[in-house]
Design brief:
2 domains; Rossmann fold; alpha+beta; about 300 residues; elongated
Length: about 300
């Protein structure tokens, strides 16, 4: 049970390890792109290319999906970024229950966007957790974890494929151990849990009172969506590349000036500055920050206005 590209390496790993895939369950095709044409989920594309049956129910808690899957008599349900919360009818359907491939080191970053929030919160490492599912939000016992370093330049876009590949490897490792009854489930410490809630467009709005490192981390974590954006005289400006550095403690947050030969330096909280090297003004293509300044014909102004 999985929908986006994150789930595909788990499918690859299961198939390569010799597991029989009775069906792939994905969310329905959704409109995408400028023309809003229906686009099939990545897992559906994978399954159809290999002759694996695909189920795409609109609802998962009305009993119909449990009935369809029950008829297949699976040993186990595997869930990887499916995007729906399963009820007890599905969680208890198979003799081995349901296991989840989650993109964080649980109990940290439970929820829909663990990869994005781990970067946005300044973590230097993350990983994958293979979890025995229960009816809570990523609250089940952990069966196996693998750690992955977050690079200084990693974005959610660059980190996700590496985590997905690690998830596939960890999944087949865990299933082999589970089959031999060689795994000891570890209960999560709820007191250490953090929530990786689903992202909203407004999460990308830059708060210039934050330290520059926090803003830079959020930019990386929220790439490609919702990104990091601010405003200049009511028009949006998207920040594409930036780095933190020491700044002028007396500068007003959001005060921007030309940084000779380097880009656009914006004052941030705690006496820091964010040097923006690439950006995209509303209605225009992405451009070098110095080119933006040259077109603006101003060397100092206030962002967030």
């Amino acid at each position: 049970m999985g929908t986006p590209a994150f789930a595909v390496p788990s499918l690859d790993a299961l198939a390569a390890a010799g597991h029989e895939l009775l069906a792939v369950v994905a969310q329905p095709d959704r409109p995408a792109g400028r023309g809003n044409a229906l686009r099939a989920p990545a897992t559906k594309v994978w399954a159809e290319a290999r002759g694996v049956p695909v189920l795409q129910p609109e609802k998962v808690r009305d009993g119909r999906l449990a009935s369809e899957l029950g008829a297949l008599r699976p040993d186990l349900l595997v869930v990887a970024a499916y995007g729906r919360i399963l009820g007890s009818d599905l969680l208890t359907l198979a003799p081995w229950g349901a296991v989840n491939v989650h993109g964080s080191l649980l109990p940290k970053y439970r929820g829909a966007a663990p990869i994005q929030w781990a970067i946005a919160e300044g973590e230097r490492e993350t990983g994958v957790s293979i979890m025995q599912m229960d009816e809570g939000l990523d609250t089940g016992d952990v069966l196996l974890q693998r750690v992955l370093e977050i690079g200084a330049d990693d974005t959610a876009e660059t980190l996700a494929p590496r985590l997905a590949a690690l998830g596939g490897e960890a999944l087949v490792e865990a299933l082999a151990l589970l089959e031999r009854r060689a795994l000891v489930p570890v209960r999560q410490d709820g007191a250490r849990a953090t929530l990786a809630r689903i992202l909203e467009k407004e999460d990308g709005r830059v708060d210039w009172t934050l330290p520059a490192q926090r803003i830079a981390d959020r930019l990386r974590g929220f790439t490609p969506w919702p990104g990091a954006f601010t405003t200049l005289e009511g028009r949006a400006v998207k920040l594409l590349e930036a780095r933190p550095e020491p700044g002028d403690p007396g500068a007003s947050p959001g005060a921007a000036r030309r940084a000779a030969g380097r880009g656009l330096a914006v004052a941030c909280g705690a006496g820091t500055a964010l040097v923006v090297t690439r950006l995209q003004p509303e209605g225009k293509p992405a451009q070098d920050a110095l080119a933006f300044l040259n077109g603006l014909r101003r060397d100092a102004f206030q962002l967030g206005t």
